[in-house]
Design a protein that fits this description.
alpha/beta, Transcription Regulator spoIIAA, 5-stranded mixed sheet, 40% helix, globular
Length: 124
């Protein structure tokens, strides 16, 4: 059994980066569990930058977990910028987001643009 490779670290102005380099079962479970725990306590908007630039693809397990996360009652508080350069990952993220339309998500290829978007959506 492997280990999760999920990395989370803060950036200035209240952005949490979630760095994803694989969508193994362990990583997906780690992400799902930590996301639910965080969202259970949300009372105001938060900024998340998902760095998926290292992903070659996304597992169906990750897609299913993301759909479940989007249905969480506090999901509307999460403003998410997703960084990716891979067309397969981009297509799968778009498909996942379309399952439960709405939300505060945007896809980016440029990190500075993603951060600027987050700051316009959730001022400090």
């Amino acid at each position: 059994m492997g280990q999760s490779t999920l990395k989370r670290y803060p950036l200035p102005r209240n952005i949490l980066v979630v760095y994803v380099e694989d969508t193994s079962s362990e990583t997906v479970q780690d992400w799902y569990d930590s996301s639910v725990t965080e969202m259970d306590g949300y009372t105001r908007p938060v900024k998340r930058l998902y760095d998926m630039r290292a992903l070659p693809t996304i597992s169906i397990e990750a897609v299913r977990a993301a759909v479940r996360i989007r249905r969480h009652p506090q999901a509307h508080f999460v403003y998410t910028a997703v960084l990716t350069h891979n067309t397969t990952v981009t297509a799968l993220v778009k498909a996942t987001l379309s399952v439960n339309a709405g939300g505060n998500f945007q896809l980016f290829t440029d990190e500075a643009e993603a951060i600027a978007w987050l700051h316009t959506k959730v001022p400090d």
